[in-house]
Amino acid sequence: MADPASPRRVRPLLAMGLAGATGLGRPLLSFGFILMLWFFVTAAGLVPEQIFPSPLSVWQAGVEMAENGTLATDLAVSMRRAATGFAIGSVLGVTLGLLTGRVALVRALLNPFLTLLRPIPAIALVPVAIVWFGIGEGSKYFVVSYTVFLTVWFNTHHGMEYIPEIYLRASRSLGASRQREFLTVVIPAAAPHIVAGLRLGVALAFLSLVAAELSGASSGLGYRLQEARQYIRTDRMFALLILLGALGACVDLLVRWAGRKLVHWQQG
Amino acid sequence: MAMSGHVRVDQVSITFKGKEGPVTALAPTTLHLAPGSFTALIGPSGCGKSTLMNAIAGFVTPASGAITLDGTGISGPRPDVGVIFQQYALFPWFTALGNVKFALKRLGLPKAELQDRAMAALEEVNLADHARKFPQELSGGMKQRVAIARTFASGPKVLLMDEPFGALDAQTRIVMHRLLIDIWQKHRATVLFVTHDVDEALLLADRVCVMSQAPGRILRDYPLDLPRPRSLRAQAEVLLPIREEIIELLHPTSPHSRA
């Protein structure tokens, strides 16, 4: 009989344990590992607490912000900005994407210009937005919706370009009018790309929002990060960063779930 | 009432844009399909048989010549020219029933009648029990049955089939052949059936047209006046010599090998 402690047996067992950690198990394993690493690095006193705070002080900073009420307010303000910007940007993006995909004139007039805009990073727009809309809500909505719009437009347009010809042939030889073809064949056929674009748009909404809030804002999670820098409160910064990460992941899960419901015929 | 569905293809040639100028996909070809007839078009791959079919469907425009249906020119896809594709072309976002309803929508029927007629069309292909399933939940043979029901539901005068059973296994094919003949005899559309399977052509069609290598043209035209259902064994006297000849035409160098 083989010795159970021999490496030959231990390795498959470990592999089995990893393979079994599906669903929530795998991320939890990873988070637990990183948290432990973080704890030991800070507990060993390798770096000053003010530069690299311990998990415990980050937790306390989070609790502190929650108790004094800034966390809830900032969260609400930021979420409202991201949601409003995303709504405006995605509606515009899908609409214009459907138009540039379907109408040759609109495509000829807009595609080269919009393609040229795409490489400009959202952060570069913040100064312009502040001049145009001030440091209030306007500039945030502008930066977020602009970023979301470009990505959603691009993906929608691509989805329209790659509609399998056979669907259009089938639809036309079955006597569908152009309008019915557009509504019941073209849009569903492009839907997987549109949904992928919306998912990217959500991620970019958070990205560009924080960029906009970091410079020229008086509230929101990004502003609070900037404020924490002024007081060298790295513990608060870490708490806010973790919150942003968790928030983004949750929203992404939600969008993925909704997308799967919406384009139920698409695998994967 | 005179039967409709008379297709005339007169001196039609088709060219495509290639890297070095235009490429001829179909040499000038003439083909007349009598109303209610069942014609099989057979030829080596790339010979232009699908191109010819796409032209009759209105998907591609001929470079020269004319295609008419009952005297009027074909200028684009239209519901009285139905098409069955090898890849089924079902809409994955609709159920089987939804796909059939799509074909009926243009008739502007009341809701209840739309539903009844779509169900009846699915019953005809023995798929009433699967009406609520999405195409991706159906087997290949079932998908093609939905496609057949969908196309016949829109009441075509002409039915174009581009290697419709090419992706199916031999057993399913036999079932599909029987089903297709049954439905065709009920609806009596003019059928053009593109295939590269000689036996399939002989078992189904009233007439088999054999095309040459690219750029294609029609080499031979065999009328087949035999009762259905057919079998190569029972009607061997007539069918086997024709079969040999067609195989010889398709593969002049190696008469006994088949692709």
TrEMBL record, chain A:
Membrane association type: Multi-pass membrane protein
Segments traversing the membrane: 82-104, 116-135, 204-225, 237-258
Organism (species): Salipiger marinus
Localisation per UniProt entry: Cell membrane
Domain ABC transmembrane type-1: 75-255
Entry keyword annotation includes Transmembrane: yes
CDD domains assigned: TM_PBP2
A single GO BP: alkanesulfonate transmembrane transport
Record's keyword terms, sorted: Cell membrane, Membrane, Transmembrane, Transmembrane helix, Transport
Family the UniProt entry places it in: Belongs to the binding-protein-dependent transport system permease family.
Its job: Probably part of an ABC transporter complex. Probably responsible for the translocation of the substrate across the membrane.
UniProt xrefs under InterPro entries: MetI-like, MetI-like_sf
Protein name: NitT/TauT family transport system permease protein
Top-rank taxon, per record: Bacteria
Gene Ontology cellular-component terms listed: plasma membrane
Automatic annotation (TrEMBL), chain B:
GO molecular function: ATP binding; ATP hydrolysis activity
Record key words, sorted: ATP-binding, Nucleotide-binding, Transport
Bilayer-crossing regions: none
Top-level taxon of the source organism: Bacteria
Coiled-coil annotated spans: none
Similarity comment text for this entry: Belongs to the ABC transporter superfamily.
Protein name per Swiss-Prot or TrEMBL: NitT/TauT family transport system ATP-binding protein
Organism: Salipiger marinus
